[in-house]
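Hey, quick one: can you model this chain's 3D structure?
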Amino acid sequence: MELVHSGKVRDVYADGDELILVASDRVSVYDVVLPTPIPDKGKILTQLSLWWFERLADIIPNHVVSATDVPQEWAGRAIRCRRLTMLPVEWIARGHLAGLGLKEYQKSGTVSGVPLPDGLVEASRLPEPIFTPTTKATEGHDEFITYDDVVRKIGDDTAARLKDVTLEIYERGAALAAERGIIIADTKLEFGRAADGTLVLGDEVLTPDSSRFWPADQWVPGRPQHSLDKQFVRDWSSTLDWDRTPPGPVVPDEVVEATRARYVEVYERLTGTAWSS
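Sure thing. Here's the predicted structure for all 277 residues.
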């Protein structure tokens, strides 16, 4: 096998015509990888993605070839995948106003060109889920683009199909999570094309690294929410005298433990299965 890419969290190895996608325990905030891992994080991301892939397979094919035919050293945190040509867009659906979407709304009253009602506050539920794509930056930060920008990048038919798929995945995931007392405020997806041109869901799906999860019984619009995702680490880092450039700060033990507990909790509440590493 050959290492072909090392990302902020995942490493990708070529194995013949297929890829091995390995989720590490690394954590990044503001596009900076922190020096302290979160134990079991990569396994939780992988196992939760596999759980969701099964429940979304009727909407769009996914990249999974096998969750077990992987090197033993990566068991539980690796997936054997189809090779895809990834599309240059981050496909984001939002049902609540938070993060960069909130900041954009406060400036312009829109997110990715989508107009929103006046008077919304942090964590407000939107009248209906919206599609808010961003660029897929290889360096620096992703930036909001409009649906028309997506059309110019990849064509009308593909843009329309994947906008619909993004919203359908979000709505199904949010409905299932709501039954388990969790709000999915927003989520980011990635899609690519297989060798035969088929559109395929890749990377991860509806995980604490790619989504905002909030306990429904603690949701109060107008303030930051109790997060069951990576936002907890972002919030901790924002209390530091750190300029958000490498090297990142060492994460203290209590923050590591609290972060791991959030990942475990969201896995267990969504799947109904006790986490076992």
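One thing worth noting: The helical segments are 41-56, 99-108, 147-154, 156-179, 231-237, 253-271.
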